[in-house]
Amino acid sequence: MSHTDVERPETADVPAGEALLVEPSRLSPTRRAVTTVLRSRELSIFLVLVAVVVLATSKNNGFLFSADGWRNFLLNPSILLLLAVGQAVVIITRNVDLSVGSVMALTAYLTGRLFIEQPNLPIVAVLAACLLLGAVLGFVNGALVAYGGVPALVITLGTLYIYRGIMLTWAGSDRINAGDLPREFLQLGTRSVLGVPLLTILALVVLAAVGYYLHTARGGRELYAIGSDPDAAVLYGLPVRRRLLAAFVLSGALAGLAGALYTARYGTVSSSVGSGIELQAVAAAVIGGIAIFGGSGTVWGAAIGAFLLVTINRALPSLGIEDFWQRAVVGALILGAIVLDRVLARRQARKLAESRDHS
Amino acid sequence: MPATSTAAPVLELRDVSKSFGPVVALRAGSLAVDAGSIHALIGENGAGKSTLVKVVAGVHRRDSGVFRLGGEAVDFGSTAESKQAGVAVIYQEPTLFPDLSVTENIFMGRQILARGRRVDRQAMYAEAERLFERLGVRIDPRRPAEGLSIADQQIIEIAKAISLDARLLVMDEPTAALSGVEVDRLFAVARSLRDEGRALVFISHRFDEVFALCDTVTVMRDGSYVDTRRIDATTPSELVSLMVGRDVDELFPKVAAEIGEPVLQVRGLSRAGVFHDIDLEVRAGEIVGLAGLVGAGRSEVARAVFGVDAYDSGSVTMSGKTVRPRDPRSAIRAGMAFIPEDRRKQGLVIDSSVTRNVAGVIRRSIAKAGLLTGAMENRAAGPWAGRLEVKTSALDMNAATMSGGNQQKVVIAKWLATDPKLLIIDEPTRGIDVGTKAEVHRLLSELAGQGLAILMISSELPEVLGMADRVVVLCEGRITAELDRAEATPEAVMHAATHHLEDAR
Q1: Which residue of A has its CA nearest to B121?
Q2: Which of the four pLDDT bands, split at 50, 70 and 90, describes residue A3?
């Protein structure tokens, strides 16, 4: 590949992990790829997920090996996965979007309302309407953050309450029930293709698209740059405001989509839909290796994090663990992930600094 | 190489001004750079060179004056616009994305694209290697930018600017952290760019470099244009007199103080990758200047001594007693006071009154039964603010609205109230306009006269030479010289500050 590969043959005295950090070009392309995967945060979190599934299945065979168990394993995380992907993109830019739960509630209610008013509305039109509403609400967040210069934490905490308030006012004591919804729409939430639920496929398609964009598009790379050092991004002449706006619009649109899918999946919409789910989305992203100060991590990790969170919540009761401990385990996971991040980041900084002394 | 024609200069600035609140950073900056030439811009720190550069780069918008690029009037509102117009700038302090690879840092925002608008990583790695080869350095294009030495970071900045293919390349002290070989390579690249017909602006403090590389030189002083000379029609001593324009002794009224017992003793202080084997001693009544280039590790040493940052080995003692590492409170109890470089962020509770700021550090000793009243704060703060002549009509004035000089005095007052034996002060006059600087200097000199030991970090050579009884020079984290007031000439300090680099490579 590059000529340095020839010039500097691989030497055995430096461990592959360290070489990957300090002088990646010294490793052969395959070795580099293998080491990257082996040392990735995504793999370790995936192994934790596998361990949880194996443990739960060994206690109760039906956890995975029953029609219901398999379906729940794939289907339950799909809505959180959508939110986690959007959240991951926002956190990568060193921001946060706490309003996604409220956005989701608004579009979940919108879905029901639309079908009540217009029972013959095509499903695609309803999904598009939800995406659009979510995008608009995300735009409001993004505009306030990018142009107002107020931290996203404060802005989206505010819009969390405002959007929820709008939903409560609009819905009143109203409630959407499965009877209000067309059968085809409800089937969207339960149908499977080749044993994989449709909702999961939809979520994975979104994940793949966003993951591909972040890795290979200029805009995606710029999101990482902005999160890595916002001041440097301005000096580079990157369109910082536009990118931030786009990140929030994406997060809002995905939350909007998640709202419609929630209605399809559960059939009922009450006023408490999605309250607290924004924190789960943040947790999924953080557990999956998105640095809370931006600039690093992947949506793949966030997606696995979403799977892990939901699966643990389902596994612990079947392992006979009390409610209190279930929450404590999730809390410990988050703290563990953040502590691990700090430790790894510090060790990496130290290694890189030491390599400077040796050169 | 003489300028080619009578065509409009690539860059033309006339009487450009820029103020930040009450501080005038640039009064009347003028500069005309022709195509196919390298133009030196020199002046003391604070002369307005960097502000001028930032106006050209689109970081700051000028308040007034003419700004033409290739004969056309321009007005950049962002760095994106200046890049678009073909201006590449290498800033004094590198600005990189630590999480991203070296290659991504070079190409961010204008990545090479393959089919389907995908970022073409392989092409960029290859291009980055070509750039590094041209610059004659070996940096792994795939490694993250985090942890690179300042010299390597500077190389990345240069590679970035070269790959931009700009018609105007501005380099703000690009050689400050480079070794001799690296400087030679950079000059070769600069000359080849000039021969391609590009215009270059080169800012440096080193006259040998200015005379070796440049065709024309413009001198600035106190935010204003002084003069432009052809390089073959001037001499270093002429340039010095243009730059300084006044006597150094006048500027820094150093009062001779009686030097007493050692107050601070630092032995073998080390931190991997940052600084090594630092031995320091500061005596009562003595001002020790800590000099060195940007990134030499001066502030890091100060932060470690005060206990803000950890260190791996070594010891810090105050008047014979050991100060615990990583414990600023222990350092304060031992009689240390620390005024960091960025006082807005680290030294001053900016949205608070002067009284609050001054009383903040001593609140424990003035509080009664754990309670603190406004009256107590006023009683404690009053004498200090008065003594330092902080010009605030009332002590209740908000610190944020004061000028840089007065803010610095409040910070000093805040620490003096703890009755320290040692004052560590990092860049005491950064961001303070020329008139007020002398007041801060006079104050420091007076404090030393009263028996306070002072460790002063400064990038401004005249300030170090004018104020310090002894100068300790740091280079790449090591002490490379310790000079008495008599020995400390600009040449000796600069030599020591770059010395280690030349030796090591």
Answers
A1: A216
A2: very low
